[in-house]
Structures
1.
Amino acid sequence: MTFEQELEKRTQEVQETIYGYLPKETGCQKTILEAMNYSMTAGGKRLRPLLMRETYRMLGGEGTLVEPFMAAIEMIHTHSLIHDDLPAMDNDEYRRGRKTTHVVYGEAMAILAGDGLLNLAYETASRGFAMAPGDTRVGSALATLAAKTGVYGMMGGQAVDVESVGEPLDRERLHFIYRLKTGALIEASMMIGAILAGAVGEDILRIGQVAADVGLAFQIQDDILDVTGTQQILGKPINSDEKNHKTTYVTIEGLEKARADVEQISRRAIHTLDGMTGEKEFLRELILSLISRKK
Ligand code: GRG
């Protein structure tokens, strides 16, 4: 099997796992449940749960304890996309190849669907307590999930991003935004995989470092694709950053340097990963493949 075929197969497996945790669209609150599922089932690369599961496996994790956390991280990520597309934020009409949630369900319902997914994520991850009673790894993984999502993680990065619109940004502030807005959830994904596999101390820190680099490279590539990609392949509009008067890595460094940096930062992530024990061939290939991703 080629790496691409293996990736397709593993992504499919991850998606099936996530689907098992989606709510049934019944009851008086049927509409919000539909709106939540609308976005969750719209596709997407499933990168974060995939990174979580691969890190878990690499560090010797077995069984299903990681699964509710895989679903939870994709719910939080999807919540962030729904809110990021809202009129008050980027005001985008397409995401994952579909009309955005607020376009289909209206703004109020999209806000609620985003909030619903954010909360469902914690409800779902909390199932880990019943799966492994008394196991401290579950609490530690949950604390990591919450910390990386909140104001010291993704939400904090988004807040600084929103505040910086239309202003010239220096490199340091841009790095801060990227590390939190995009990097924090990728860090959560890999660190939770490591924690649930039973990793401790230095290994968790190293995985966090790998993930921080993967996240930074991922966001720079996102900036590159916003100016070089196509809506058909990306499933979302291009030139969104320019439309929203955003300073990006590409506007500061130029396209060529941005491309070179994606490669260099990704190779640094792989170098750190190589210093760790465990079967890591798939993770290495995955990080390498992100350098030239088109979507
Ligand atoms: C509720 C206070 C509050 C905040 C919401 C909106 C928000 C916080 C955060 C936005 C974070 C964000 C959208 C960062 C961009 C990250 C990014 C590059 C997303 C695209 O990820 P992909 O390419 O998407 O993995 P798919 O669709 O493949 O899953």
2.
Amino acid sequence: MTSNPVDWAAATEAVRQSNRIMVVTHVKPDGDAIGSLLGLTLALREQGKTVDAAVDGGTPAFLKYLSGSDTILAHLGQGDWDVMVSVDASDEERTGEVGAYGRAHSPLVVNLDHHPTNTRFGTVHLVVPEAVSACEIVYDWLIEMGHPFSLPVATALLTGMVTDTIAFRTNNVTPRTMAVTQDLMLHGASLYEIIDRTLGSKPLSHLELWKLSFPSIEFDRGLVWATITLESLNKVGLDDMTDGGLVSLLVSIEEARISAVFKEQPDNKVEISFRSKNGYDVGSVAFGLGGGGHRQASGVTVSGSLAEVQQRVLPLLRVLITAPSTP
Ligand code: 5GP
Ligand code: MN
């Protein structure tokens, strides 16, 4: 239909003409994934649409405070839709099994995302790399549609604004970010409650995982990395979940330029999270390995043992440190 990076009119037309809408987001969803998924889903339901929302595995526990989160499906086994909207996912694979099912049962796909590495999959694109979160794009789309913000929608959208900027601490935050935030707060969303629930609390199992993983931390000329083994994950009872922000802690070390956390997965795979200081584009490193993300926060899952993957990936990070890109 179109290949414009941002086609509000086509996207609005696509949902206006649809009765049954599917909304999906990326696997291992974070606050922005669930926030943008729910913000859009609830708003479209307020417009009288029949909307299904789905993400592999369902809503993570720390985001269950969001109203409507109990309606998010963890699996799809039936259904047909007039359109599927994918939010916060930079490629089709990231939308997991529910995304594959939704795509096969929807004639049209709207790709709403803010990752610079977005592959422009789908029929209609709302891809805005300048947006600090997918929630900001949903906010703009709802304004475009003339849809008023209810409290549940404002709370869902403010959640992604907060989590993707780590409470407004990333270098892409602008006065506009704060204007959107202010507007969502004026619609009743509680900034304190959202920060407290998302960034301000961690389950004890994260602390236990950190205790086991800290001895693995290594530092070498601006590069700091840690290794999380399957054994540690099993010991603390975490399987596939987040590591609780260890990679962000590592990059906050004054001498660090780039941080990486290598998390062993079943089936001889390793999930890697990257973070960097301004000027070091870890998004392109992840993209080159088949993953994606942002300049300063990215990730990928690659095949191989921990040792093999580190041997392959650490040199790429060392090259980046010696030849940083222009910010
Ligand atoms: P995190 O390290 O918090 O899991 O992810 C950081 C950023 O990289 C997020 O924007 C996330 O969506 C992206 N990301 C993480 N893993 C992958 C991956 O396997 N593929 C892609 N395309 N993006 C990823
Ligand atoms: Mn996001």
